[in-house]
Design brief:
Layout: H1 15-27, H2 40-46, H3 55-66, H4 72-93, H5 96-100, H6 104-121, E1 125-126, H7 133-139, E2 141-142, H8 144-157
Length: 171
């Protein structure tokens, strides 16, 4: 995603806001591609304190802004099913002590293993145009934004505080 401008041409949007706006265009056909106002339900999400969300709430927000909302229940059920498989694979990959140990080394090992298991359970191939949760479910394809949002949800699920780091052209 690149930086964009609103209708007045005077505001730069961040990478994540641009992804949300891009998604709004794809899910709301009555607006032209030049319409740059963020709808109120999406603005509410942008103003949320995501640090207080559970993994399920993060995924619900992701689905709201990225997918066809008439599939919301189906996509949340898919997440829950896959998350249980993820939990099992994570438990098989690590000794139980790693989950309790709050040292930097153990937390790093846990975060790295979460990333590996996320790719094993949820993700199969990178596609720069696969930014929706429906893409993750239907084709197991992802981009940097969708994988980062999923990773944040899974880190949250495992009790590891996290935040996104955004550069001008990547998350």
């Amino acid at each position: 995603c690149t930086k964009g401008r609103n209708q007045a041409g005077n505001q730069n949007f961040t990478h994540i806001e641009q992804a949300v706006i891009h998604t709004v265009y794809h899910t709301d056909s009555q607006h032209s591609p030049h319409y740059m106002e963020i709808q109120p339900e999406f603005q509410k999400l942008l103003n949320s304190d995501f640090a207080q969300y559970t993994d399920r709430e993060l995924m619900e927000a992701f689905i709201t802004v990225s997918s066809n909302n008439n599939r919301k229940d189906e996509l949340l059920d898919f997440y829950e099913t896959q998350a249980k498989a993820f939990d099992e694979s994570l438990a098989e990959a690590l000794a139980p002590e790693v989950f309790e140990d709050k040292s930097y080394e153990s937390q790093y090992l846990l975060a790295d293993t979460i990333n590996q298991q996320m790719h094993r359970v949820f993700l199969r191939r990178y596609n720069k145009n696969s930014f929706t949760f429906a893409d993750l479910k239907d084709t197991q394809s992802y981009d940097c934004v969708s994988a980062s949002l999923l990773y944040a949800a899974l880190l949250t699920r495992c009790g590891i505080p996290c935040g996104a780091i955004e550069t001008s052209d990547h998350v």
